[in-house]
Amino acid sequence: MKTCVLHCGKKLLVPALSIAVLSGCGTLGDTGAVKDANELAIACKTDQALTAVDRAAQGGGLGANIADLQRVVILRDVGRLSEASAAMAERNARAGADAEAAAEAERAVTKSLEELRTERQKRTGRRTCP
Questions:
Q1: How many CB atoms lie within 10 A of CB 40?
Q2: Pairwise CA distance, residues 70 & 88, whole Å
Q3: How far is CA 50 from CA 12, 25, 29, 97, 127, in A?
Q4: Which end of the chain is more exposed for a tag (fewer CB within 10 A), N or C?
Q5: What Cα–Cα distance (Å) separates residue 126 from each residue in 20, 44, 67?
Q6: 10 Å Cβ neighbour count for 6?
Q7: Nearby residues of 58 by Cβ (< 8 Å), 6 or more positions away
Q8: How many beta carbons lie within 10 A of that of residue 2, not counting itself?
Q9: pLDDT, tens digit, for every residue of 84-95?
């Protein structure tokens, strides 16, 4: 479920979402909270996953950027589509995303949602939460 990416000369293990938000060298923030959010989402603990995303967002840096998109993934995963759309629109506005950047973020969210569900399938035998 993780993709190794290069950031400022350091290898990091972060969700595939990070590709859509890497835009230069900055602080890492709380990328561990993003990992926690992924694990909680796989376990269908949505509220706890969103709390972990909030923690990552508060940490700033790369973790906060990834958290913005991870929130969309988690909300879509459980069918909270209007909240997911609002979160994506807010993220794109805050990031000043042009059409190309918004499309890249959308692709990253779609890929990350698929990875989350594939991992859940491997662990639990089901792709979606009950």
A1: 19
A2: 10
A3: 22, 26, 17, 23, 19
A4: C
A5: 28, 11, 25
A6: 9
A7: 30, 64
A8: 14
A9: 999 999 999 988
pLDDT digit string, tens, across residues 35-84: 999 999 999 999 999 999 999 888 888 878 899 999 999 999 999 999 99
Query: Which of these, 99, 100, 40, 97, lies nearest to 70 by C-alpha position?
Result: 40
Instruction: Tell me the DSSP string of 9-58.
Output: TEEEEEETTHHHH--S------HHHHHHHHHHHHTT-HHHHHHHHHHHHH
pTM of the model: 0.79
DSSP for residue 127: S
**How far from chain centre, in Å, is Cα 60?**
14
Residue 12: both structure tokens together: 């990091």
- How far is 105 from 77, CA to CA, in rounded Å? 16
What is the spatial distance between Cα 71 and Cα 77, in angstroms, rounded to a whole number? Answer: 10
